[in-house]
Specification:
Largest sheet: 6 strands, antiparallel
Shape: globular
Strand content: 25-35%
Number of domains: 1
Number of helices: 3
Structural class: alpha+beta
CATH topology: Thiol Ester Dehydrase, Chain A
CATH superfamily: Hotdog Thioesterase
Amino acid sequence: MAGAAIYETGIAPEWIDYNGHLRDGYYGLILSYATDALMDRLGMDAVYRAASGGTLYTVELHLHFLREVKQAERLTVTALILGADRKRLHLALELQRASDGEVAASAELMLLHVHQGATVASAAFPAQIAARIAAFQAAGAGAKPAGPGSRRLALPAQDPGTPQRT
């Protein structure tokens, strides 16, 4: 486990597809709940959101499916803060199977701190939140995510004279 455990879940029967595996979209749901748990840990809980109008928006998500997840499985989600600035978090999450400790999926997220008022606009983290982010990041310093990390999604370039497959 590369990061700190922040969330744990079982797999609901309705999350299973026709192949007997966790349906693609539910990985995103689990990641969303895990991000909420991290927000709570960093002090951006419901009380913070109501009092300040501050919250996190996901602006980019890269997800890698590494191993299958079946209904009987439990998953633990671990988190590493790979980078942070005054408004953003670069986060790595891993979904680890309880049965064998293998990482079933990994994700990288770019999160933006915003203020939701009359208009929605990006906003700097308050000092106390920035300090918690720094402490969480420092606790995972030197750890490396198990997944392949973000990369550009593209088809390989082909010779212009070569017909495309469809």
